[in-house]
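Issue 218. Parser rejects a valid record. Input:
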Amino acid sequence: MKKIGFVGAGSMAEAMMKGILQSGITKPEHIYITNRSNDERLIELKEMYGVRPCRDKNEFFAQTDILFLAFKPKDAAESIGSIRSYIKDQLVISVLAGLTIETIQHYFGSKLAVIRVMPNTSAAIQKSATGFSVSPEANQDDIIAAKTLLETVGDATLVEERHLDAVTAIAGSGPAYVYRYIEAMEKAAQKVGLDKDTAKALILQTMAGATEMLLKSGKQPAMLRKEITSPGGTTEAGLRALQDSRFEEAIIHCIEETAKRSTEIREQFSGAAIEK
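Output the parser choked on:
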């Protein structure tokens, strides 16, 4: 595996480093990290993973073949501007939410090979559902290299860039909606008499088991739902309550609003890039 550089050292960069190293596809000394000013964070990551902090831009870019952009999206213009003159022919992998491939290339001032990535926070436990898109300048080797790296933190699916707003709505923000559902289940469980710890254990195993059934059975969710719904039974009563509360419409509206906001943010960044 080629040498990798991380510009930015936050939680997503750490999740990626951890996955890459646990996979064994590269060595700690082949991963270089830098950020704007937080030396303590660089030292922390060095002590935890054995990676190489590097403040010398000439060395950083001379030593790396693949470049992860992992800073805050709002800092993109400034951060890319500070490294633009040093970049050579590295493959650029961006985890900057809202920044299109075109915007990233605009900030760099050249048509670099860019992979735009939308992971989610489950990357921290190597369970991310990640969507990624590629620029026309990226060749097949670039795509394979990027997918190999992304699969160290979960599943990675290649999609057209125009679909990344939908990926954001489903995978990027999706964990928050699952957590919100579990919060509601916990409150409901306590209302019907279960203590908090018992409720949490039952809910989490139920969620894990249901997901595993979908993965392993090959059946559609509608079929699995029908198999546990007896006429006049308890499940039917609960499903009727969800229908009365317009559960499906609420979920659809949630996803549509998330995708809409993702589009708005993307357009804001694109407009700012054009102005610059």
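Fixed in the parser; the record now loads. The chain is about 55% helix and 15% strand.
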